[in-house]
Amino acid sequence: MNFNAKYLPPLALVGALALIPVTASSFAAADTTNYQELEKFMSVYERVKANYVEPVDDKTLIKGAIDGMLQALDPHSSYVEANDFDQLKATTDGNYGGLGLTVSMEDGVVKVIAPTEDTPAWKAGIKAGDYITHINGEFLNNLTLDEAVAKMKGNPGTQVKLTIIRPGRDKPLDVSLTRERIELHPVKWEIKDNIGYININTFTGNVAEATKAALVGIDKATGGKPLGYVIDLRSNPGGLLDQAVDVADDFLDSGEIVSQRGRTKDDIERYYARPGDLAHGLPVVVLTDAGTASASEIVAGALQDHRRALIMGEKSFGKGSVQTVVQTGPESALRLTTARYYTPSGRSVQAGGIDPDIPVPQLSDPDYKSRKVIRESDLRRHLLAQSKVDDKLLEADDTPDPRFMMTAAALEKQGIKDFQLHYALNTIKRLSSTAKIAQAGPAKGAR
Hints:
This protein has eleven helices and 22 strands. It is an alpha+beta fold. It has two domains: 86 residues, Roll (Pdz3 Domain); 233 residues, Alpha-Beta Complex (2-enoyl-CoA Hydratase, Chain A, domain 1), CATH 3.90.226.10.
């Protein structure tokens, strides 16, 4: 496992991590004026040890204290050890036994952010916005997110039953799934109506290389004459910062891609595009939805700010913070939010997300009107952008354009299974036709 990359993990069940050893010097700068507060902690600790109704070991108390401290910060800071640490490493390798769900938790309920494509959860029809209330009949109330995730994971081939509440449905749904070895295939491509379609579903360590290969493959398959490209980042929960930067760079000739800003004014890192647009200036549409998070928002934000692509679909998740994972022992790690990232124009995506240039609802989903989407701004203790974010804007969700009135059944009769993709392809065709007319110049005899 490579521990030398910067990481933008949005939620549980995603990504790859950077582990940094803790040294004694980390504590040398402790403020001595805080000792009184530490004395309060020790007083409570000693009282619990001496007087709790049952004996309790030191490890349990210290782990509880650490968990409580981090829970007071933001949803993405956490501490893991022992089995949880092993599961974390397996997850970040993109190869583990499970269901393929990106989830969060609030008020004791597991909320589905997005299922990963081609996994058991995706095949079973679990959708963003579903609530998981029971696992194998066990009510999940009062479990931590890590504990709930651990119950969903298991050996490939074993079965698990989830009880799901879906907004708009009167009765809970019981879904039986068979766990599989989750091996992420982050980039897939094909030609649709002479348009290159590239589906990027996560940002693991080989995504940039695979995206370049997809662009080369599309170029060859179309004889060097594709009409344009659709980059599908829907339900992409994020991953490695360097991969997001390199993917955005594939479509840019110059300029800033993203900046990462920490606690102090001097703690800024900027990432820039290198010369060479591998898409040759052809039209690009990027598809996003409420599951488009973190590293995928970096790509969408960069291409939008440089006006290199049209962002289409739904507002993204809004996870604009960076986590550093510090290894605190052989089998323990601290995951701590250490920075925010900003798009080239200086926008913080945190809690606000990326607004599409062209909002397009997923009409081919029969539940899209009743489906409750979950974004960063819905998470308890979510980190705000440094500039103030209008709560009314956060609450104003994707209001369907009145032009989009077709039903899922009507679309299915026309053979349209993915309305957003259908709309994106037609947009590329229109953009390509307009570009050809402009290149041709005025008609003969025209003045």
